[in-house]
Structures are given as C-alpha cells and as structure tokens.
Specification:
It comes from Streptomyces netropsis. The protein is an alpha/beta fold. It has two domains: about 120 residues, Aspartate Aminotransferase, domain 1, CATH 3.90.1150.10; about 240 residues, Aspartate Aminotransferase, domain 2. The chain contains 13 helices and 14 strands. The strands form three sheets. An eight-stranded mixed sheet has the order 2-9-8-7-6-3-4-5, sandwiched between helices. The protein is globular, with a radius of gyration of 21 Å. The protein binds pyridoxal-5'-phosphate (PLP). The site of pyridoxal-5'-phosphate has 14 residues, from helix 4 and helix 8.
C-alpha cells in the first residue's frame, strides 16, 4: 500500500463518517437502529406495482435528460396546486437523481471557487460537502436553541453576509432539527436575499411530513423570490422510496438551465420506470401523505414522550424524521461518546448532532433519534431507554 498517496483535497477527510460507524455498531450489537433516517414504513402498493409493470413493459432505457415529460408535468402541477406557483414543465422543471444530485448540481452551477454559501447550522451533511466540491465556502448561520425550539436570529443572518455571498441554502422542514421555518422567519430571509441579490436553493424534501399545527411554506412563493429561487424536492421521503433516488428542481429557466448543464455530466438521467410510475402517483400525494403524517406523528409523540421520561430532554420536532435530545442528565457532555456507548448501555443507536454542525462551539450534548420506523421499533427503543435510564 502506498502510504504517500492522498486523494484530491476536495474529498480528503470525507471518507468515513459517524453514520457509517453507528450503522456498523447497530449491525454488530443488534441494537434498535434509530440512527440513519432510513424508513421502515410501507410505500404505496399501487406505486410499487406500477414500477414493476413499467420495467416489464420495457421502460428501461435513458429518459430525456430533463426527465420523463409526464413527471415534469406532474411536478409543475404539484407546485401549482400546493403553493400557487407556476412552472413550465419544459425548461423550469428538471428531474434529478434524488434531491442529493439536485443540490450538488445546483451548487456546482451557481458557485465559483471562493464564493460563499450561507446555510443554517446545524445542517444536512451534504451541504458542506457540496460546497467543498464546488470550491465554495459554507458559512454557517446559527439556529439557536431557545427552550426546546430552534430559532433563527435574522440579525445573525445579516451579519454573515459578505461581498462573496452568492447563495443561500435553506432547508425547511429542517433536518436534523424538525424545525419548520415560520412565515416571519421566511419573510426576514427573503428580505436579506432580495437586498443582497442572493440566489436561493431550498431543500424541501420533507414538505409533506409536517405535524400538528405547523405549516410548511415555500420561500419561492414570497414576493420577488420566485425569480431567484431553486426549489428542490424528492420522492424518497414522501413515498418511503429512499432507494429510488428520484428528485426534482423547479425554478426560473435561467437557473434551471445552469443546473441542467451540470447535471447532464453527473448522471445525465435516472430511473426511467420510477419516473413513469411517480408521474402517475404524484397527483394522489395529498391523500397518501395524510396517512403517512398520521403514522409519523404518532411515532414522533411516542419517541418525544419516551425520551422525556428517560431523562433525555427532547427538543420540539414539528416535521420530518428526527427528534434531538439533550444527553446531559445521563452524565454526558459529549454526544459522540453517548452514541458510542448507547448500544451496549441501552441497545439503541442514535447519531450525535455534532455531525450536522459546521460552526465551532456548537452544542456538543445533542443527539438525533429517528422515528421513521415501525411503531414497534420506536416502542422497543423507548422501553430500552427507560430500562437503561
Ligand atoms: C434525505 C434528504 C435528502 C436526500 O434526498 P434524496 O432524494 O434521497 O437524494 C436531501 N435533503 C435532506 C434534508 C434530506 O433529509
């Protein structure tokens, strides 16, 4: 083995993550895995049958680079019906290899080396990685915990803007916190973006998974924002088909064309039979998502109440797959150590929230538990935590 060999700087230290370590721990110890956000829940049966039929009918070659036309039409209709936003299926909608490729292609298309990308911290781990692949710098804007809720300080956002700021990357509903950005927060974000002429990339993969009274709003619908915003979503979280990797991006033609230019040389195109079946399913998303929200919000409640009873103070999660918990009452200040010891101590796997923080001096005592699991798994995990408390 050549020990002098180094990979390119843009991927150095990206190798193994705490996700790999915790997934391996779960496998090795047989612990209940509330680490990674991989759903254990069913997908719509009609969607699965439709994909199988499409494969057998021969829908197995490259689709158009921009995506299967019927899916682009269904995505445009989805944005119109849900948010009152009009996008032309030809030119303003692009189908991608999951939201992940849409994000990577957007950052590659929008940023020159040295540009700055503003993102709220903690953030999804693909954001700092995507910034680095583009040669850009991710500038974290803290979401601070106030009581059990993560809040945005618009002053901190303003203070983070520099002449190099080019893109604001917003994730709402938010992973890992389960935060849904409020109308006031979005209005403040939109003000900053208009004032400093920032291009916005929004990641809304949890748009349908919002619980209780919380309501998802899309930034592109705010005054003056459609023309500067790329809105990204995906089928994975909405239909429990995370392995299919079908995503999409909507925006004004000049921005979508730039993303398409990068995307065509990353993957060119993806998943013809999945695209075909999703084009038919997306029109029925509201009915499907209402049922899924019921399941997930019950799991969220079970987990939140269980964590509180076990002395792991939970934060409020209004959306998505995850609850953050404060592990200090168990005698830990370091969430990484807590997560390394939890499988043997309690038979449960979680992920330290530090894996999602970019800024130094972020809270180290938070860990993330996922609840996109069978109710039985969540119940078992709660019982185990209570026994170990
Ligand atoms: C899961 C997730 C993604 C990835 O979506 P894919 O469609 O599977 O690529 C992107 N952003 C966030 C915030 C996620 O949680």
């Amino acid at each position: 083995m050549n020990t002098d060999w180094n990979p390119a700087a843009r991927v150095r230290d990206m190798g193994t993550s705490v996700f790999t370590e915790m997934t391996e721990l779960a496998r090795a110890t047989g612990a209940v895995n509330l680490g990674q956000g991989v759903p254990e829940l069913d997908s719509p049966a009609v969607l699965l049958k439709d994909v199988a039929a499409a494969v057998l009918a021969g829908s197995n070659q490259y689709p158009p680079a921009a995506g299967f036309p019927a899916l682009r039409e269904a995505v445009a209709e989805h944005q119109r019906a849900r948010y009152g936003l009009e996008y032309r299926p030809a030119g303003e909608v692009l189908i991608t290899t999951g939201a992940t490729e849409a994000l990577a292609a957007a950052l590659l298309a929008l940023c020159d080396p040295g540009d700055e990308i503003l993102a709220f911290d903690p953030c999804y781990d693909a954001y700092p990685a995507g910034a680095r692949l583009a040669g850009a710098r991710l500038v974290p804007v803290p979401l601070e915990l106030s009581g059990d809720t993560f809040v945005l300080d618009p002053g901190a956002l303003r203070a983070a803007v520099t002449p190099r700021s080019r893109v604001l990357l917003l994730n709402t509903p938010h992973n890992p916190t389960g935060k849904v950005f409020t109308a006031d927060e979005l209005a403040a974000i939109a003000d900053v973006c208009r004032e400093h002429e920032l291009t916005v990339v929004t990641d809304e993969v949890y748009e349908h998974l919002v619980y209780g009274d919380a309501r998802h709003l899309t930034l592109a619908a705010l005054p003056g924002m459609r023309e500067r915003t790329l809105t990204i979503s995906s089928a994975g979280k909405t239909f429990n088909v995370t392995g299919w990797k079908i995503g999409w991006v909507c925006g004004p033609a000049h921005l979508v064309a730039a993303v398409a230019a990068a995307k065509q040389f990353l993957t060119y195109a993806t998943g013809t039979p999945y695209q075909e079946a999703l084009a038919r399913m997306l029109g029925d998303v509201e009915e499907w998502a209402a049922g899924l929200r019921g399941t997930l919000s019950r799991n969220r409640d079970l987990l939140t109440e269980g964590l509180a009873r076990a002395g792991l103070r939970p934060c409020r999660a209004d959306a998505g797959y995850f609850v953050q918990a404060d592990v200090r009452e168990w005698g830990y200040t370091d969430g990484v150590r807590f997560c390394r010891e939890l499988p043997s101590r309690a038979g449960v796997v979680a992920i330290p929230t530090s894996a999602f923080y970019v800024r130094p001096n972020a809270p180290s005592y938070l860990v993330r538990f996922s609840f996109c699991k069978r109710e039985e798994s969540v119940r078992t995990a709660v019982e185990k935590l209570l026994s170990a408390a």
